[in-house]
Amino acid sequence: MSQARTTQTTDESTVSREEVFDLLSNSRRRHTLHYLRREERPVELRELSEQLSAWENDVAPGAVTHKQRKRVYTALRQTHLPRLDDADVIEYDANRGVVEPGNLEDVELYLDVVPENEIKRSEYYLGLSAVAAALLTVAWLEVVPFDAFPMGTWTALIVAAFALSAATDVYYDRVRRLGHDGPPRDIEGSD
Fold first, then answer.
1. How many domains, the chain?
2. Which residues are registered as beta bridge partners of 99?
3. How far apart are CA 58 and CA 64, in angstroms?
4. Do 67 and 133 sit in the same domain of this protein?
5. Burial letters for 147-172: b for 16+ Cβ neighbours within 10 Å, e otherwise?
6. 29 assigned to some structural domain
7. Which domain holds residue 30?
């Protein structure tokens, strides 16, 4: 087991923050966790390597060449699956060539990240609140041209802005969630 592991309770093992970030630093390991969460069943190493090859080469699983699958298969077998198994994130039976989800909850906590080209949610909502407060203030003071609409209209527009923002957050949370339908969404600039 890794030295980065935190102390273990009687029946539970937890993965340290450093170990999770190290595990997630590689796209093949992230894609493996994504696929296992999506399938929610034990999968054969051949099936896993074919799907990861398809994602990496942007082709359908049936269009993956032997060479593409073999490259991923070898890396998974020799490096990535043993590391994930040592961290108890998956259960990997090398003799049978079967991989199944382990303790993915420890990992999912760290997957809600903000890509480089996006603003943090807290900063976005703080800014939206400041704009809303400014709009309501100038509308209440009846400053031209903000006096053209009644206060109820401005309030409705602000509520709509917050609702649209929240709906957008819900959508992006779903497509970034580990195991969502479709290929994994990676963070730009990772790996």
1. 2
2. 43, 92
3. 9
4. no
5. eeeeeeebeeebeeeeeeeeeeeeee
6. yes
7. 17-108
Contacts of 176 (CB under 8 A, 6+ apart): 111, 112, 185
Q: Give 108-155 pLDDT, tens digit per residue.
A: 766 655 455 567 788 889 999 999 999 999 999 988 888 889 999 999
| Domain CATH number, residue 72 | 1.10.10
User: Cβ distance 158 to 135 under 8 Å?
Assistant: yes
Q: Which two tokens stand for residue 126?
A: 């703080």
Residue 150 is assigned to a structural domain of this protein: yes
- What distances in angstroms separate CA 152 from CA 44, 149, 164, one per listed residue? 59, 8, 18
The pTM for the full model equals: 0.59
The tens digit of pLDDT for each residue in 50-100 reads: 999 999 998 999 999 999 999 999 999 999 999 999 988 899 999 999 999
